[in-house]
Amino acid sequence: MMKDGDNSMKDIVALCKRRGLIYPGSEIYGGLANTWDYGPYGVLLKNNVKQLWWKEIVMKRADIVGLDSGILMNPKVWEASGHLTEFTDPLIECKDCKKRFKGDDVKGDACPECSGSLGEAKKFNLMFATHIGPVADDKSITYLRPETAQGIFVNFKNVLDSTRVRLPFGIAQIGKAFRNEITPGNFTFRTLEFEQFELEYFVYPETADKFFADWADERLRWYVDLGLDSAKIHLKAHDKKDLAHYAKAVTDVEYKFPFGWSELEGIANRGDYDLVQHQKVSGESLEYTDDEGKKVMPYIIEPSGGVDRATLAFLVDAYREEEVKGEKRVVLALDPRLAPIRAAVLPLVKKEPVVTKAKEICDSLRNKFFVEYDESGTVGKRYRRQDEIGTPFCITVDFEGLESEPQTVTIRDRDTMEQKRIVIDQVGEWLAGKIN
Ligand code: GAP
């Protein structure tokens, strides 16, 4: 039976808590709204998302290098980037119930909550301010970065001077960003603290339109290749009037979440806005010298995605409820490359030599894969638990297999629930083939 959006999100949030994927932040103190912690399985899933992006964007390509810049930067960075004045949302407060709304969410003159009268829209800056040192005054103020991108721009000259990159080339990084969002929500979709994977791809200005279109196609393909339903993902161009202050054009990769089509990643043509601004404010030349000695200010094409949003989309897309022999089965049908645990090793019965052999197999796999040993409860219950965390394969050790020559185990496929026998010595290679 189809569930409406709210219900299926509730089921996913409940599964995440129950199975150690994602917990509410600071829960024993009553929580802190819109903060979430990744549990033992969630951190593995999120790390897989990050590693697959890093492999695709940095490792496999000769034209892109990596970076890991700081969260705190000289406040002049945010003056130059325009964030101090432009990174704002219109904030409207109801004069009666005092509830606050983001300007875009208010239609008409009345409060959407109590129909009371609304105050004037005020500009609200989304950056979290903090202070360095013991005195909290204007001189000690700095900001938690609202995007990782500026760390790349301020290191553009360093990377040019210390490596062999030539246009077109990219600098990529993964890291935390912070925004004091007026309307956070939808689980991990919009939060105050989140991780971004960002690529800044520097190109000759006359080639920018082509790279902009190519990167949008490329990024859409990445999500589909990792299993997102191609009917629930598309590219959507921004209207010119909705563009961020730095952008000439933006196309979003959008996914159809249970709460509606929403942005997973934005591909922007930032033109030469950032390098020109940093050159102006810092006084350092940020021009690129081509092979003929000509100076060029590169344009920047930026595919910028949210690690938490991508992780949420993979979770939502993989979530299935099925009926098997009259019982409900919940499955996370994640691509094996994303699955937190690659395989579980289960003794069919808690008896020797089955238990010892199962532990031995699990230990031999542990060097290469995240695997799990589980001997508690019926084998049916153990399968269901692994289904719920998305483990693609359960390796079961039984008497029959240990008595055969050569010795075998059964491997159960999460999605088809079919089992097949495989020689124990071949399990590692077989699993590697499935995961890579
Ligand atoms: N450097 C460009 C930039 O930051 P953005 O569209 O504001 O562009 C990029 O953010 C991505 O970061 C978004 O597509 C989204 O995936 C993620 N993101 C932005 N704000 C977020 C939030 N409050 N919570 C979770 N993810 C967020």
From TrEMBL:
Protein family per UniProt: Belongs to the class-II aminoacyl-tRNA synthetase family.
Official protein name in the record: Glycine--tRNA ligase
UniProt organism field: candidate division Kazan bacterium GW2011_GWB1_52_7
Residue positions binding substrate: 102, 147, 194-198, 302-306
Sequence ranges assigned to domain Aminoacyl-transfer RNA synthetases class-II family profile in this UniProt record: 11-347
Chief site of localization: cytoplasm
Molecular functions (GO terms): ATP binding; bis(5'-nucleosyl)-tetraphosphatase (asymmetrical) activity; glycine-tRNA ligase activity
CDD domains the record matches: GlyRS-like_core, GlyRS_anticodon
Domain of life: Bacteria
